Amino acid sequence: MLVLANASTAVGSETEELVLRLLVQLLVILVATRVVTVVVRRLGQTDVSGEILAGLLLGPSALGLVFPEISTELFHPSTSTIFVGLAQIGLILLMFQIGMEFEFSEQLGQRKASVVAVSLAGLVLPFVCGYLSAPWFHEQLAAPRPPLLGFRLFFAVSMSITAIPILGRIFMELGLSHTRTAALVIGSAAIDDVVGWLLLGSVSLIVAEQFSFVWAAQRIGLIGVYVIAVFFVVRPLLKQWLARDIARRGGLGLPTIAVVLIVLLCSASLTSYLGVFAIIGGFLIGLALHDDRRFVALWNQRVSPLVMMLLLPVFFAYTGLRTDIGALDGWWGLAVCGLVIVVAFGSKFGGAFLAARAVGESSRDALTIGVCMNTRALMELIVINIGYDMGVVPRDMFTMLVIMALVSTFVATPLIGWLMKGERRQVAAT
After folding, report:
1. Cross-referenced PANTHER family, in alphabetical order (predicted)?
2. How confident is the model at residue 344 (pLDDT cuts 50, 70, 90)?
3. Beta strands in 61-130 (DSSP E)
């Protein structure tokens, strides 16, 4: 790290010093990510698992534990804001791609009621179980403990969340994005996330003593209006323009990509303003264009590689850098963490499985749906980071919830691959 320490004498300005730090960080993250993903693929995991694990190894759980000075100097706080921006842009673009990849109309057919049923059961039961069990977990926390109500609400939300980006990556990498089960799960998870982010916003305001039912009603109404506008106004106009432009240019030109990005970022900005976070806006535009398969193929050819190989590893790795899984205190802490995992897995799996069976899914498909809906990963980390910043999720519980989120991802990949092994399509190696 001597080079970084003396960067100000080797380059001509503070800007160049910042650029050098950023470049070194990107190099380390990308190299570590590729090495770790090669290893985890041999263990039956997907790239997303390797990207998360690479972040953990570079953070306080490994590098920071063994070489704290190197870790601090390598990932200097001066670049943290830039990394957050890069990570969020990557996530928005990933959500756009996920929306385009899933063949909802073809695969779901008349099963839209199944999506709603699985989504609601997979949201309500975990929330109730989390809320009822939270007082016991609250008593196990180290003093000083946060206010009980705020802790209960955030703990309940953390039990309810599902990670669309992680599920999308798993399905795409396993060659399963074409299946009806994948479409049902992603549709259910999308509803879960929209409701979950609204719930998170409401809970945040309750904790801050600013909640208003008028606020919630306004947000729900505005989001409904926006979804209608996307599918009945933006979608037909954008599809017609894309068809004409691609035919005229004979492909996807740079001006066309620029226009799509403008629409995408506008959508992300609007949904963020409406209180359901920017990634939902990206997903909605992708879903609106999913049946234009020529555009999807061209986009995947020209734009997706940069997103998948650069921006996404930054998001997954940088989030892992903020996680310290060595913070648990002794065997009792591990036991409490195990119980958190049991409550999270049991309630989410139970709700999704029972709802799937109730709407006529086979036992195997219901098992698959239950496993998929348990995938929380980094969407969970967003929730608990908000709770941590607000002071209602203390550090020991924060660590337990991080472990629960990561375990759900590592367990889900092989189980999904095994349960759906007869439905795979061959996917290109990355």
Report:
1. CATION/H + ANTIPORTER (PTHR32468), K(+)_H(+) ANTIPORTER 1 (PTHR32468:SF0)
2. very high
3. none
Residue 119: its H or E element: helix 112-139
Task: Compute the C-alpha angle 90/292/303, nearest 5°.
Answer: 30
**Amino acid letter, 286:** G
SS3 186: helix
How buried is 213 (Cβ within 10 angstroms: 0-12 exposed, 13-18 middle, 19+ buried)?
exposed
Mean per-residue pLDDT, 170-193: 79
Q: What is the DSSP track for 192-255?
A: HHHHHHHHHHHHHHHHTT---HHHHHHHHHHHHHHHHHIIIIIHHHHHHHHHHHHHHHTS--HH
Cβ count near 269 (within 10 Å)? 13
CATH hierarchy code of domain 82-423:
1.20.1530.20
Q: Is the pLDDT assigned to residue 389 strictly greater than 80?
A: no
Closest CA relative to residue 187, chosen from 167, 216, 159, 157 = 167
Tell me the average pLDDT across 120-149.
Answer: 90
**Summary mean pLDDT of the chain:** 82
**Cα angle at 69 between 67 and 70, to 5 degrees?**
70
Q: Are 46 and 170 in contact (CB under 8 A)?
A: yes
Altogether, the residues listed in the chain come to a count of 430
The residue-averaged pLDDT of 327-344 equals 87
Query: Would you kindly state where each structural domain of the chain is located, as residue ranges?
Result: 82-423
- Write down the pTM of the prediction: 0.73
**Cβ neighbourhood burial of 28 (10 Å; 0-12, 13-18, 19+):** middle
Contact 404, 344 (CB under 8 A): yes
Distance, in Å, from the CA atom of 286 to the CA atom of 148, rounded to the nearest integer, reads: 40
Hey, what are 193's tokens? Answer: 């996330």
Yes or no: say if 171 and 104 are a contact pair by the CB < 8 Å rule: no
> What six digits make up the tokens of 33?
């990510």
Distance CA 408, CA 337 (A): 13
Cα–Cα distance measured from residue 238 to residue 289, given in angstroms and rounded to the nearest whole number = 8
Is pLDDT above 60 for 204?
yes
Which pLDDT score, from 0 to 100, does residue 209 have? 62
SS (H, E, C) 398-415: HHHHHHHHHHHHHHHHHH
Give the Cβ contact number of residue 281 at 10 Å.
Answer: 27
